[in-house]
Amino acid sequence: METISTFVFYVGLIIFAAHFFTALFERTRVPDVLPLIILGILVGPIFDIVSPDDFGHVGPLLSAVALSLMLFEGGSHLTLKTLKTSLKDCVILSISTFLFTIIISFSIAFYFMGMDLIPSIFLGTVLGSISPAVVVPIVRMLNLSEKTKSTLVVESAITDVLSIILSLAILKTFQAGHTTIIAFIGTNLIATMAMSLLVGFGGAVIWSA
């Protein structure tokens, strides 16, 4: 019962903080995501007021649902016509940004921090993502053109997918007993991604019609 009460309290606190910082953004133009990130760092790793264990098994589920809703809301204004005009820019920007971030992060971790090869690559793939959780709320509140919004939202989604695929491939390869990363990608992630793309594309076509 105490765990449930704590969980409900923190969820309510997060909702209140989100509305408060949204109102603050309208006055100061400071994105509400930044204060929320700082607040999370303060109450989590620094002061240890909240830990992932406080949310139990519901925490990862809430994170997945929240990210899905943010991506849905961020992409709900997109149309196939707008997406066609910005798709090329999205792919180029996504891949170049992702690879550049991986190279920089890997170089710092491997050459300056003394980390091993695989952990350095893993760190690079994790940091290579421009999280939709940060991009989508900011894009939604800024006065940008539809093409710019489309480019930023799709670019963040692509880098997030690339980061998840490569990071999971590196992390799960040895846990699953595969000999290579390619084996893990071929046996697990490709099928999942294909189904997700099929469902997502079908829903997008229906939504844009």
TrEMBL record:
GO cellular component terms listed in the entry, alphabetical order: plasma membrane
A GO term for molecular function: antiporter activity
Pfam families: Na_H_Exchanger (PF00999)
Residues of the Cation/H+ exchanger transmembrane domain: 16-208
TM ranges: 6-26, 33-51, 57-78, 90-112, 118-139, 151-170, 182-207
One record GO biological process: proton transmembrane transport
Name recorded for this polypeptide: Cation/H+ exchanger transmembrane domain-containing protein
Taxonomic classification: unclassified sequences, metagenomes, ecological metagenomes
Mode of membrane association: Multi-pass membrane protein
Gene source species: marine metagenome
Major subcellular location class: membrane
